[in-house]
Specification:
about 240 residues, alpha/beta, Rossmann fold, SIR2/SIRT2 'Small Domain', 2 domains, 6-stranded parallel sheet, 9 helices, about 20% strand
Length: about 240
């Protein structure tokens, strides 16, 4: 563990006026939710590409296949927020915004009041025909809406779908006003999420806390498990 870098990150957090957190699946692995592409991730060993499975085409043309994959691999209703979620929530609520790729709602359940769910969330469930919102328990009983026969879906951004324009606008605005950006638990290769970094202030400091290096210039990197780092981080 690089204690000097953690001290420098803590100092930047103390001095920042507004912080933008950009997070990914590595934040939720400590809550028992697997990531996507690592060994043991939800895409490991699947017969078809995630771009095919989690697409709007599969949702409507192979709804049972889509439903089985999502229900068996992506829902973890008993998962609880972990220390990383809670520390980010504490900092964000005082002087920051969290923009997350995660779709598990653990950040809001950790009490974070400033969350932008860039790719939507699994528990925003609705019927694609009548647009009625439904519960997870409703969805767990089957993908067809008993009232109208429409296909039920989670409100996540699928391959082939665009990011909600309002979400993009809010995310860019958060980046533009932040003087510190902290990237946590993501390989930072999925676009347009990774492109958000281009909207930071010219003088904004950028840190990444990740198990692997991020391929972007001008980033102060702490290569470590995020939980180890956030154990040492406190809000002054």
């Amino acid at each position: 563990m690089d204690t000097d870098k953690i001290k420098a990150l803590q100092e930047d957090i103390n001095n920042a006026k507004h912080i933008a957190f950009l997070t990914g699946a590595g934040v939720s692995t400590h809550s028992g939710i697997p990531d996507y592409r690592s060994k043991g991730g939800i895409y490991n060993g699947v017969a078809e590409s995630p771009e095919t499975i989690l697409s709007d085409d599969t949702l409507f043309n192979r709804p049972q296949f889509f439903y089985n994959f999502v229900m068996n691999n992506m829902y973890f209703p008993d998962a609880k927020p972990n220390l990383i979620h809670k520390k980010i929530a504490e900092i964000s609520n005082k002087k920051g915004t969290l923009i997350t790729q995660n779709i598990d709602t653990l950040d809001t359940r950790a009490g974070n009041k400033h969350v932008i769910e860039f790719h939507g969330n699994l528990y925003n469930i609705y019927c694609t025909k009548c647009h009625k919102h439904l519960t997870y328990d409703d969805y767990a009983q089957g993908y067809l809406h008993k009232d109208c026969g429409g296909i039920i879906r989670p409100g996540i951004v699928l391959y082939g779908e665009a990011i909600n324009p309002a979400t993009l606008e809010k995310s860019v605005a958060a980046m533009e006003k932040s003087d510190l950006v902290i990237i946590v638990g993501t390989s930072f290769v999925v676009y347009p999420f990774a492109q958000l970094l281009a909207y930071r202030k010219p003088n904004a400091k950028v840190w990444s806390v990740n198990k692997t290096e991020i391929a972007a210039s001008g980033i102060n990197s702490i290569i470590d498990d995020a939980r180890n780092v956030f154990l040492k981080i406190n809000l002054k």
